[in-house]
């Protein structure tokens, strides 16, 4: 693109001094964009993923339209599961639906190892292409083992995660085998993204808030520690980010993990997070619903979030969850401009 590379986001991840607070949005590429909807009329979700030129265009669009400080690879947390033997489809209005759910050790043993260069070469090609095209950092990502396991066991989205938690409690050895397999897939997938040029990686543990802190500590924390430790040992070390929704009660556990940035939702204030003794860089945490509020109110609430976040080094402005399909792109652009303008004068 010819412009000077903007590394503000990476500096914030490392808690370095920044000229303003960097901004990006989870699900910043998607159905709220008319251009994306037009592309989806021609391609299925996975077809976009498997076509590097189209996937790069979808990833790049919000950077060009909104002026955000990072791009996030356009893919789904299910992308690496298809090649390891999971029969998954992304169903419009529902999400990932699994035709062969996991219920036994035999099902877990049938899950193959991931060989990224052979299984998802299009993802790696998209990353390489984007590194040539972007003048902001590219974030790679993966789903976390608990969240992936919840889809594998439930067969699709769930409200209570009863089957998942029931499996975890009643079959602890099988559960650990599943965590180990999914951790291997996650590390292999993210390391391949990093080798291909991803400059940061985010691990989405969207549904782990369904667990108590005790259950998280017992059944999940060792696996997550292993993942983030392995990422730190990748030949190219890039910042790592951990996100979960409804997970405020887990933040003290998260703070013990070898991860660089915690991405928090809107249910807890940044002030409260800091009061818990969390000393990592933080990302978040505006309620996405405020995108539907009058702009003056949106600005006021964004200012509250920024004032708390920017009071210490290591802060990235984001939503507390992803952009929803009926959000307004113009509002997102105005919000991005406001964050940049307000924080450049701090």
Can you walk through the features of this model?
This protein has 346 residues and is an alpha/beta fold. The chain has a single domain, classed as TIM Barrel, CATH 3.20.20.210. The strands form 2 sheets. A 7-stranded parallel beta sheet has the order 1-4-5-6-7-8-9. The protein has a two-stranded antiparallel sheet with strand order 2-3. The longest helix has 25 residues. The chain starts with 7 loop residues before the first helix and ends with a helix.
Q: Output the number of helix runs.
A: 15
CATH topology (level 3) name? TIM Barrel
Give the biggest sheet.
7 strands, parallel
Q: Which whole number gives the mean pLDDT? A: 96
User: For this structure, what is the CATH class?
Assistant: Alpha Beta
Task: Give the H and E element order.
Answer: HHHHEEEHHHEHHHEHEHEHEHEH
Low-confidence stretches: none
From the spread of the alpha carbons, the general shape counts as globular
Strand portion, in percent? 5-15%
Assign the CATH architecture. Alpha-Beta Barrel
Q: What structural class do you assign from the helix and strand content?
A: alpha/beta
How many domains comprise the coordinates?
A: 1
The count of strands amounts to 9
Rg, Cα atoms, Å: 19 Å
Side-by-side strand order of the widest sheet: 1-4-5-6-7-8-9
